[in-house]
Specification:
By secondary structure, the chain is α+β, with helices and mostly antiparallel strands. The protein has a single domain, classed as 2-Layer Sandwich (Enolase-like, domain 1). The protein has a 4-stranded antiparallel beta sheet with strand order 1-4-3-2. Strands 5-6 form a two-stranded antiparallel sheet. The longest helix is centred in the middle third of the chain and has 12 residues. The protein is globular. It starts with 5 loop residues before the first strand and ends with a strand.
Length: about 90
């Protein structure tokens, strides 16, 4: 039996205008919701790293460029608030 683990970071009534899908390895995937330039929510299916990175970004009041999330070569760990780089944008 295969189990699908789905977790949400700040999913609710969000006024999003951009949705970015990211395929992970195997059966993992995540969906990132942006309102303007701000990250509003992340749905993560069998992808705990995407969940934790998205959660940390949202809790820190930060955002990330959607094209970096979409790019499968981007290491999500570099997008976490503890990482400093050009992908970080304060709101």
């Amino acid at each position: 039996m295969k189990i699908l683990l789905m977790v949400f970071a700040r999913l609710g009534q969000c006024a999003y205008n951009q949705v970015v899908e990211r395929r992970g390895q195997g059966r993992s995937a995540s969906v990132w919701y942006f309102g303007g330039k701000r990250l509003l929510a992340v749905d993560a299916m069998n992808d705990p790293r995407a969940y934790m990175v998205g959660k940390r970004i949202i809790e820190a009041g930060q955002t990330v460029q959607p094209n970096l999330v979409r790019d499968p070569t981007t290491d999500l760990r570099t997008l976490a608030p503890s990482a400093i780089g050009s992908s970080w944008h304060p709101l």
